[in-house]
Amino acid sequence: MSLVRPFPAWIVKAEHAADVVCPMHDALSPTDREELLNSNALSYLNVTRSTLDMPGASYEEIGAANAKGLEHLMDAGVYGELNPPALYIYRIDRDGDVHTGIVADVDVHGFVDGRVLGHEAVQQERVSALVSHFEAVPARSELVALMHPNDPDVSSIVATTIKHDPLLELTDITGVQQSVWRIADDDVPLVSERLAAMRHYVADGHHRVAATVARWREHGSPRGGNVLCVLYPEDQTHLLAFHRQVVGPVDARRLLDDLARYWDLTMVDGPSTTHGEFGLHLAGRWYRVRPTGLTRGAGTAGLDVTVLDQHILRPLLGTASGDDRVRYVSELTDLDEVIAEEPEGALFLLAAPSHGQLIAVADRGEVMPQKSTYIEPKPRAGIFLRPRQGPVNPKDLPPAA
Questions:
Q1: 227 and 104 in one domain?
Q2: Does residue 248 share a domain with residue 218?
Q3: Are residues 172 and 228 both part of a single domain?
Q4: Domains identified in the chain, total number
Q5: In terms of domains, do 270 and 228 share one?
Q6: Is beta strand 7-11 parallel, antiparallel or unpaired with respect to 278-282?
Q7: Largest distance between two CA atoms of the chain
Q8: 3-state helix/strand/coil string of the chain
């Protein structure tokens, strides 16, 4: 059976899309989730609640609430008719930052036999919660994002398809524009074949993958199990960095002396991020920190974040990523605000890992250190609704109007 396959789906109706479609549950802050749940009964967030939204509730109670949320959406007629199996193009446009991928079923076997590789560790508690969620809710909408090498034939089909009017256009609550096209049936075999011949890498959704695999195994590893994914060519993804801020007070003079002894330390005019070195803000000044005579290992051992941990944070500051004294700072964060909040600390800037570095880590069967990178785009939930495989009780999932 092919790794990449067309899938049957309900698609949200245009007139309801702005209300239904929302960022993934874990992409929203607790405050944003609470506000959205209280203000919009049609948001797909009502189908993806967790213990963070229902503290003290059991997995069974949360699952029942999510199933009821899906039933409410179906009763409200926000989805169109169930479409026959197809492949779709999904485009996200955030203020001109455009990412285009192909939405498809990906055979769950691929996630256990090495055709699809991850690069992040997962937390078993979150996996267990998602397994319970998948058991309770009889459809999938939350897309796992995969990344693959660029392919000119697939790119050509995508470029031709998006010249036509989209099947759906919407702007979600965060102001992000999204569009959907259906790939012509005649193009599906070539697209499926080309994508199936590649190795893919999980860009977003490691916990959803782990939960799907766990549930599939619990049910006897049946033939035809799938993960609903959006497959992005490498050039349609961005890897972004997490910087490290060490909470003060930091002995600036001592740290600078230690760095100057073992590193190439240069005062500079402002922040900079370059592979193989670090930016540093300390005691009101910016520095560039370059390693000298350092031999980097392969895979995880060669990452800048690993070098920072092993050669600066641990030996010189007595801390490391994951400790209470270290804060993670997204590269999209205003650095002036970060510095103002912790003026006696040390802020280390890192360049995001390259695609090649991430792939090398995954190919070696390793995982990236915590908060090494995050990948754009972040697919939204609620556009596609894919019925769960196997018998589905019509009372659990009534036909859309």
A1: yes
A2: no
A3: yes
A4: 2
A5: no
A6: unpaired
A7: 71
A8: CCCEECEEEEEECHHHHHHHCEECHHHCCHHHHHHHHHHCCCCHHHHCCCCCCCCCCCHHHHHHHHHHHHHHHHHCCCECCCEEEECEEEEEEECCEEEEEEEEEEEHHHHCCCCEECCCCCCHHHHHHHHHHHHHCCEECCCEEEEECCCHHHHHHHHHHCCCCCCEEEECCCCCEEEEEECCHHHHHHHHHHHHCCCEEEEECHHHHHHHHHHHHHCCCCCCCEEEEEEEEHHHCEEEEEEEEECCCCCHHHHHHHHHHHEEEEEECCCCCCCCCEEEEECCEEEEEEECCCCCCCHHHHCHHHHHHHHHHHHHHCCCCCCCCEEEEECCCCHHHHHHHCCCCEEEECCCCCHHHHHHHHHCCCCCCCCCEEEECCCEECCEEEECCCCCCCCCCCCCC
User: Residue 331's Cα: distance from chain center in Å?
Assistant: 16
Q: Which two tokens stand for residue 345?
A: 């600390």
Q: Is residue 58 part of a domain?
A: no
| Residue 86 resides in a domain | yes
- Rounded to whole angstroms, the Cα distance separating 303 from 327 reads 19
Cβ burial 169-198 (10 Å sphere, 16+ → b, else e): ebebbeebebbbbbbeeebbeebbebbbeb
In a domain, 76, yes or no: no
Q: pLDDT tens digits, residue range 275-333?
A: 999 999 999 999 999 988 788 889 999 999 999 999 999 999 999 888 889 999 999 99
pLDDT (0 to 100) of residue 29 = 78
pLDDT of residue 389: 66
Q: Which residues are CB-neighbours of 29 under 8 A, at least 6 positions away?
A: none
CA atoms within 13 A on the CB side of 86: 19
- Provide the whole-model pTM: 0.91
Question: Residue 121 is part of which domain span?
Answer: 4-13+81-237+377-387
